[in-house]
Amino acid sequence: MDARHWDEMYRSRDQIFSGNPNDVLVTETDDLPPGQALDVGCGEGADTLWLARRGWQVTAVDISEVALRRASAAAIDVKGRVAWARADLTTTPPPAGAFDLVSIQYFPLLRGPGHATLRGLLDAVAPGGTLLFATHALADLAPRPEEGFDPADYYQPDDIAQLLGPAWNILINETRPRAAPPPAGTHHTHDAVLRALRLP
């Protein structure tokens, strides 16, 4: 799924997602003091805007130029609080130790050799910062061989938790019912959530 794939998806409709921030993000970060945040795979920008409107300085990264243009057009009231960046985080890791929050919400994070992409995202969390990862629960996902999709190819919270090591405190690693309706055409009823604090 390269940049062309995502650009075509966003061009297919005027709006792909609901425009609301992800419930996991709202629930798990509402108690955090604003700082520097990285929104991984920001899409149309709902999470980015929610964070920026609460005082966060957000670096919003996506591989799709179409998505970024759409997101930035909706960000008139938070100018100066968001840096929009087109990048492929599988090949270009974010700066190490730069973010008080790294939010990975339903980003298709493929397993890779040496966990290079994942380790780049973990390294981006500053000491004292928070990693927040949410994805569809494995039980809600079925292989789609015709599309080349196998859920086992993607990280789940347990996989990430096992890589964190003693420099991290795992606060939440659980599967919970979705608070919002599933995306159209899907049957996702549960979220798998990991929240971890990088020790100072």
UniProtKB/TrEMBL annotation:
<feature type="domain" description="Methyltransferase">
    <location>
        <begin position="38"/>
        <end position="129"/>
    </location>
</feature>
<protein>
    <recommendedName>
        <fullName>Methyltransferase domain-containing protein</fullName>
    </recommendedName>
</protein>
<dbReference type="InterPro" id="IPR029063">
    <property type="entry name" value="SAM-dependent_MTases_sf"/>
</dbReference>
<dbReference type="Pfam" id="PF13649">
    <property type="entry name" value="Methyltransf_25"/>
</dbReference>
<keyword id="KW-0808">Transferase</keyword>
<dbReference type="GO" id="GO:0016740">
    <property type="term" value="F:transferase activity"/>
</dbReference>
<dbReference type="InterPro" id="IPR041698">
    <property type="entry name" value="Methyltransf_25"/>
</dbReference>
